[in-house]
Design brief:
The chain has 15 helices and 10 strands. It is α/β, with parallel strands linked by helices and about 350 residues long. It folds into 2 domains: about 240 residues, Alpha-Beta Barrel (TIM Barrel), CATH 3.20.20.70; about 100 residues, no CATH class. The protein has an 8-stranded parallel beta sheet. A two-stranded antiparallel sheet has the order 1-2. The protein is globular and about 65 Å long. The chain binds flavin mononucleotide (FMN). Flavin mononucleotide binds next to β4.
């Protein structure tokens, strides 16, 4: 439907052309694994401080995790000094990263104050040197890629020139979130600037469009209106890994399989919780289980009440039980209403539920 259903970044094949966005404190290994099990083309770790990695900070090293089952994955690093960036990239390669992505888009004050993240969009020469240093640090077959924004602010929307400068320095994939730094997460992601980046960058370098894609229609619009080679999805994937399979179907020219049934939702919620128990320890387990409960119930009837109850739950088992009972209650309710599981597959059903709760 949109040309080749496969995207290549050097030797890395991204099939289907849909990526999970790096999200700090969200896209940990359980989250990435669930996304992979639902057909995402590639996952990338949350951004990791190059300085912290290079000095062996245990908390940061703990977030540097290879995908399970030898699947390809990317590691995202941030910083502004060449030597720590090079060292961090080598550490990423040691754990098997298929590509190293450099964050030049983070708008957070603590990151920008250190002149990292999106602040680098104001200093293309330094950004280029960082790319060159990381390219030189990793084996030639490992692509170095960059994720950045539309620009610093409305008056400095330099994404097309910036992307070209990075490609000249050796970047082999560019991801653009179509907001400026000063926008943060307000307004909307501008498809036009992503299109301009796609037009400016050589055709051999894939451009990934990012921002506000929460459904199949948004995926199709991003690809059609920008000409981008793939789409990266962040917030729309919270408790919604099915979005990847749905985009994959559409990318391959097949019909959209639709949203999951409540039974499917419950099964994947259980899988996510099992992965949290398998891969995490300590107080993080309760925190992550609470988040998973809220994500998988998002938009469904009674989800706000469940979220409050789960936040008060004393331990992970109690939180998970609340969510299980919640889903079972919704299944009973559906039966009472005389609806079949197939009714869950219509978007309208979930939307109507959320609206009736808000009312
Ligand atoms: C909680 C959160 C954490 C994020 N952390 C990162 C990060 O570590 N690295 C990064 O490049 N972008 C990060 N982002 C930005 C996302 O990758 C993405 O660019 C942005 O959310 C827009 O895409 P979306 O509308 O699909 O969510 C984060 C976004 C959110 C909401």
């Amino acid at each position: 439907m949109f040309g080749s259903p496969t995207m290549r970044v050097g030797p890395v094949v991204v099939d289907p052309p849909v990526l999970l966005a790096p999200m700090a404190a969200v896209t940990d290994l359980p989250f990435r694994t669930v996304a992979e099990e639902h057909g995402v083309g590639l996952t990338i770790t949350e951004f990791l401080s190059a300085h912290a990695l290079s000095v062996g900070d245990p908390r940061t090293l703990g977030k540097l995790t290879a995908s399970l089952g030898d699947r390809a994955f990317g590691v995202q690093i941030f910083g502004r000094e060449e030597e720590p960036m090079a060292r961090a990239a080598r550490i990423a390669i040691e754990i098997g990263a298929s590509l190293v992505d450099i964050n030049m888009g983070c708008p957070a004050k603590r990151v920008v104050a250190g002149e990292c993240g999106s602040a680098l969009m104001r200093e293309p020469a330094i950004a280029q040197r960082l790319v060159e240093a990381v390219v030189a640090a990793v084996p030639a077959h490992v692509p170095v890629t960059v994720k950045h924004r539309a620009g610093w602010d409305q008056a400095h929307r330099n994404a097309p020139e910036f992307a070209c400068a990075l490609v000249e320095a050796g970047a082999r994939m560019i991801t653009v979130h179509g907001r400026t730094r000063t926008q943060g997460f307000s307004g909307h992601s501008d498809l036009e600037i992503i299109k301009l980046v796609r037009e400016a960058v050589p055709a051999s370098i894939p451009v990934v469009g990012n921002g506000d894609v929460v459904d199949v229609a948004g995926y199709a619009r991003m690809r059609a209106e920008t000409g981008c080679d793939a789409v990266m999805i962040g917030r729309g994937a919270l408790g919604n890994p099915w979005l990847f399979a749905r985009c994959a179907a559409v990318a391959a020219g097949h019909p959209d399989p639709g949203p999951p049934t409540l039974e499917e939702r419950l099964a994947v919620f259980r899988r996510h919780v099992a992965l949290i128990h398998q891969l995490k320890t300590g107080p993080r387990v309760l925190h992550e289980v609470r988040k998973a409960c809220a994500w998988y119930a998002r938009g469904l009837y009674g989800c706000n009440r469940l979220r409050l109850e789960v936040w008060a739950a004393p331990d992970p088992a109690a939180a998970a039980t609340l969510a299980e009972r919640y889903f079972e209650g919704l299944i009973e309710r559906r039966t009472r209403l005389g609806l079949s599981p197939q009714a869950d597959r219509t978007e309208m059903n979930g939307a109507a539920d959320a609206a009736s709760e808000a009312a």
